[in-house]
Amino acid sequence: MTLTQLRYLIAVAHHLSVQKAAAALYISQPALSRAISTLEEEMGITIFERTTRGVNLTEEGYKFLSYAQQVIEQADLLIAHYRTERKVRRVFSISSHHYAFVVNAFVNLVKEYTKDEYEFSLRESRTYDIIEDVVSSRSELGIIYLSNFNRSVMLNLLKSKDLGYKSLFLAKPHIFLYRDHPLAQAQELTLEELADYPRLVYDQGTNNSFYFAEELHSTEVVAKNIVVTDRATLFNLLIGLRGYTIASGLLSSDLNGDNIVSVPLKSDETMELISVYQRGHKMSPLAKRYLEILRHYVKDFIPTQDVLLEPDDSERS
Q1: 3-83 and 89-317: identical CATH topology
Q2: Which pTM was predicted?
Q3: What are the tens digits of pLDDT across the range 279-306?
């Protein structure tokens, strides 16, 4: 396997056509086809399904593409660092579920940084991809949650990936709604009361296990379900369709405005927000500072009745 083959793979996946990818790469179509076939044979998988209209990624192909993109990104960073006069200055990177409080703390960290040149990275991503980002060092930290439902599965996965974690805080589950939603003024809601409204959930890609869901009560069957990939779209649909989503309740107007409100959900579940990192790797000063800012933000700006601020700060594996 070579970097060239991986770049070819990414091009074909982008165009979903060997012919178009070959033209973009300025190589012949037969040469590109041979390179992809050789890669598939070497890896022992089928990456693309050939059709009369082009190609489609297989399920295994999606997974392989994710790894290939990470490899190429790291290779490009390495090349940029040693072959150019202007070095890439990535100082901190983090991957997280779609949490507004993670973004708020990230903003404060960047504002504190006084160097004239830098590169920070914040990825709002899928559960499995967040873990893989940390494994591959694409991100130094990952922010996910544990619950009664997913705990054993997630902890076994972290252990298998040689990742450790620290608890950040505990949060009660809440419902996010548009401020003019008929249920927005409720003191507490049940899932039964929300049955007539569309539930919004984040896409988990090919790793679409109930245990990887970003929302609690993922096994609950609902009549109306909408899958989205980003927080802005979710917020727009909360407003436009009077939908709802289950979240941590940590919502402020600093970056998100006042259109969305948070109502406690009647539930036996609790969300334990955790930071995930590589075991045996010394955490950078910026990563430590980020976690300090995150905890202070939660403590200072979120109502204490909505968040149970009793984290266990000990390192776990």
Answers
A1: no
A2: 0.71
A3: 988 889 999 999 999 988 887 766 554 5
